[in-house]
Design a protein that fits this description.
alpha/beta, two-stranded antiparallel sheet
Length: 308
């Protein structure tokens, strides 16, 4: 089976692509002009030959799509007309109830079910989430990612995974840099504590490498539970303790690279991915590419070459 190519909508967030001066300007313009935002994104996807999309935080989120098209049915019809489809939706930590507060569980479940209902209507079946971020190293009192913490996270994941499964949607967890699901040990511990019927994995080759891990080894160890993967390259492991606040994602950016220009073993990764339940989709993730069409074409070429 020939896999389809997809990308996260964050690929289109670079100000240069929109002729604007900043990320804030892009968000403000897209919020005011959701129809124009989505039309240009769809044009670029078609030009790049990429047919699948992962929705993410604003402006490429579920609410934006519904404002632009008026309904799930109309959004799906617009995508179908171009040969496009929704693959998944990503829950950003800033865009959902905080998992660290146990009192938020009803809100966490309700938020996930809302997204799962949307995905089911779109013919998609993957909801991607992450675990909370770590705290800056040296912070007092210290925050430890230990067995007790992971057991609490696994408990929440089970409740959410069961809730979205009733919509025909799988819950998969993304391995974000500086989060509590970053290091190889984090991933192994969380996977060991969760039920494979309800909790899946969405490994990100770049972020695992940024944590000093081996993305290919992770993919082989957890192959049976990988529902989707983010294909992204890394310059080198992050070799300093970053300040973990609202700027951490920008701080991580210089360590990321377009496919084929970094340290990820793409042949090994492609081989591992071909043995997973998510083998049917190759999701090229390029955080805020100035020229997303060219970057996606280059990325898909690397992925094709790696898979031959």
């Amino acid at each position: 089976m020939t896999p389809r190519f997809a990308t996260d909508i964050i690929t289109f967030y670079h100000p240069d692509f929109w002729g604007l001066e900043s990320a804030d300007a892009v968000r403000d313009w897209a919020s005011a002009n959701p129809e124009s935002f989505w039309q240009r994104v769809m044009d670029a996807l078609t030009e790049a030959g990429v047919t699948g999309i992962e929705l993410t935080f604003a402006p490429g989120d579920i609410d934006s799509a519904l404002r632009a098209f008026g309904s799930t049915r109309a959004f799906r019809r617009a995508l179908d007309a171009r040969g496009l489809s929704v693959v998944s939706a990503f829950i950003a930590g800033s865009d959902a109830p905080d998992w660290r507060d146990s009192e938020n569980l009803p809100g966490i479940v309700a938020d996930a079910e809302r997204r799962a209902a949307f995905l089911a209507d779109m013919g998609a079946e993957l909801l991607v989430a992450g675990l909370p971020m770590r705290t800056t190293f040296g912070t007092r009192p210290p925050f430890f990612v230990d067995a007790a913490y992971m057991t609490r996270m696994a408990g929440i994941a089970h409740v959410v995974g069961e809730a979205v499964a009733r919509h025909g949607v799988k819950l998969a967890f993304h391995t974000e840099s500086n989060s509590t699901l970053w290091y190889e040990r984090d991933i192994d511990l969380f996977m060991a504590l969760t039920d494979p019927r309800y909790v899946w994995l969405c490994p990100d080759s770049c972020h695992i490498a940024l944590g000093g891990g081996d993305p290919v080894a992770v993919a082989h160890r957890h192959a049976q539970r990988i529902a989707l993967a983010h294909w992204k390259d890394a310059v080198r492991p992050i070799d300093v303790h970053l300040t973990i606040d609202e700027t951490v994602f920008a701080q991580q950016q210089p360590y990321m690279a377009e496919l084929g220009t970094g340290i990820v073993d793409w042949r090994g990764w492609a081989d591992a991915m071909s043995r997973t339940p998510g083998a049917g989709t190759i999701l090229i993730e390029l955080d805020e590419a100035p020229d997303p069409v060219a970057a996606l074409r280059a990325g898909t070429a690397v992925a094709r070459e790696a898979g031959t």
